[in-house]
Amino acid sequence: MTEAWWRHSVIYQVYVRSFADSNGDGIGDLKGVTGRLPYLADLGVDGIWLTPCYPSPQYDHGYDIENHTDIDPAYGDLDDFDQLVAEAHRLGLRVLLDVVPNHCAITHPWFVEALAAEPGNPARERFHFADGDGDAPPNGWRSMFGGPAWTRVPGTSQWYLHLFTPGQPDCNWRHPDVPEMFAKVLRFWLDRGVDGFRIDAAQGLFKHPELADGDEPGADELTRDAANPNAWNQPEVHEVYRGWRAIVDEYAHSDLGDRVLVGEVTGLAQAHLADYVRADEMHQAFLFDLLHVPFEAGEYRRAIDRGLALAAQTGSAPTWVLGNHDTTRVVTRYGGASLGAERARAAFLLLAALPGAVYVYQGDELGLPEYIDLPDEHRADPIFRRTGGRQLGRDGCRIPLPWTSEGTSYGFSPDGAQAPWLPQPPWFAAYEADSQQADSASTLRLYRDLLRLRRDLELGLDTPLTWLDQPPHVLTFARGDLVCLVNTGPDPVPAPDGDLIVASRPWTSAAVPPNSGGWWRMTRSRPRPARLRR
Ligand code: GLC
Ligand code: CA
Asked: DSSP secondary-structure letter at 419?
């Protein structure tokens, strides 16, 4: 393929804490990831994105960073990291890191210094400290994870801003030290050979200089999305990404080729999202529509058209997402173990046929449902506590993976290890990877088949997608001589003419059953009329 690698790659999201535990402390780690890289190469993905594994007090499981250029001892050390990258590259896998620029941890040396300093001391200017209004915070902004976005410095009139948990103070991007540090952080990891970065809460960073209340100061808390217009998406942010693009472009001439920026940009209208993927900013931004729409052909088609239009308008590549560590698992969103599982398989079959990049969240290839009944005493996501249990939070999609039917924690940890950091339900046994490898009807094998075919048929390339006439609730499109059809309706529908090359599940009739889909290669039965010579 001649297009740049990131335009069509399938990237597997590794939630490090829950992927594989090598040393038996019940927490996933980098050696665990390295040990399982052959599994990922065999699955047929092109690379991995590692969620934050830097030193962190873990108020938000690593999205609160104490030191941006080291590895948390719970996950290993820099040598382990280097080995992971070397092994990944040896297997032909790219490695993306998570960079979190909007905030750091309260244990970051800058924040420790700021807290120890008096109000008005320059050390506080790297963050947003402000005087409260009597006993009330400086403004009415609410945190994304529930509660006020401000925490009072004990015994003083000053408060600090945190759009997420109080453990994650927001950096003041108008202070020159902040952009300077992050530029160094990018170079540190680029020099170590990473292929790019996923940028966390990328629409954040700058706040409106007056920190004024918007019309609905509580909107963020209600929607868990970047709704407050004064807290997010300030125009100055684009200068940062232009600078970052220039940095990664400096590295594009090594053997690795392009190093990329992929943004987690949430809560914005399409027009604003487009600004983030202009030619001199990020390469890509996740398309999150499919996380929110139901399993319904019309909704899918609109989401796909929006994604394709965004890419065409900006020159970016579509970046499809069906699941991640912040969202209820796709099987559960689509109706749970049986119905939801069928639909999730059909949905991935659809995704794999689309042009652009695809992100796969760990465990979705096993068809894992959400662990909804996780007992409250085990819930570790700050969202659960900060909303007083009104929102269950994200633990249910972050349960340590089941690898084998036997052994401690289904092979997540070595035998005799401590219990995993979040308990696995007994029904996880039915989803473990080893048995799925051996079962040609498993979800894992379907993923593997689809990813092989996608690569062989070069479906990720930016070649046209043509919608075909379709009855309601059916989605059909052609890519060259391949036709993809997904039936989201209640009745069987006629299969396209042609040879079925892969199906989301086996069926015996001539029709495609509900909640299923397939790919067909069109046979040109009727010779085309000869073209007149001009
Ligand atoms: C992003 C991450 C999420 C994290 C938040 C704060 O949305 O995906 O997991 O909690 O940012 O960093
Ligand atoms: Ca471990």
From this structure: P
pLDDT digits (tens, 9 = 90+) for 314-325: 999 999 999 999
**Closest Cα to atom 9 of ligand 1:** 326
Q: Is the pTM of this model over 0.85?
A: yes
pLDDT digits (tens, 9 = 90+) for 384-434: 999 999 999 999 999 999 999 988 899 999 999 999 999 999 999 999 999
Nearest to 132 by CA among 118, 116, 152: 152
CB 488 within 8 A of CB 295: yes
Binning pLDDT at 50, 70 and 90, where does residue 508 land?
confident
Query: Are 512 and 497 spatial neighbours (Cβ–Cβ below 8 Å)?
Result: no
Ligand 2 centroid from CA 257, angstroms: 33
Structure confidence by residue, pLDDT tens digits, 147-203: 999 999 999 999 999 999 999 999 999 999 999 999 999 999 999 999 999 999 999
Query: Could you give the residue numbers annotated as active site?
Result: 200, 250
The identity of residue 519, as a single letter, is W
H or E element: which one contains 518?
Answer: strand 516-521
pLDDT tens-digit series, residues 41-95? 999 999 999 999 999 999 999 999 999 999 999 999 999 999 999 999 999 999 9
The continuous run of DSSP H or E covering 39 comes out as helix 37-43
- % of residues, the chain, pLDDT over 70: 98
Residue nearest to atom 4 of ligand 1 (CA): 63
Scored b (16 or more CB within 10 A) or e, 50-73 reads bbbbbbbbbbbbbbbbbbbeebbe
pLDDT tens-digit readout, 260-316: 999 999 999 888 999 999 999 999 999 999 999 999 999 999 999 999 999 999 999
The C-alpha atoms of residue 532 and residue 281 are separated, in whole angstroms, by 47
Pair 399, 424: CB distance under 8 Å: yes
Sign of CA dihedral 455, 3, 279, 466: negative
Give the 3-state secondary structure of residue 502.
Answer: strand
Does the CB atom of residue 60 touch ligand 1 within 6 A?
yes
The CB of 365 under 6 Å from ligand 1? The reply is no
Q: Are strands 129-131 and 158-161 parallel, antiparallel or unpaired?
A: antiparallel
Q: Is 46 in the pocket of ligand 1 (CB under 6 A)?
A: no
Q: How far apart are CA 194 and CA 421, in angstroms?
A: 28
d(CA 192, CA 108): 22
**Residue 525, pLDDT score:** 56
User: Which amino acid, 105?
Assistant: A
* C-alpha closest to that of 15 among 334, 291, 359: 359
Indicate if ligand 1 lies below 6 Å from the C-beta of 288.
no
> Pseudo-torsion of CA 340, 441, 320, 252, nearest 10°?
150
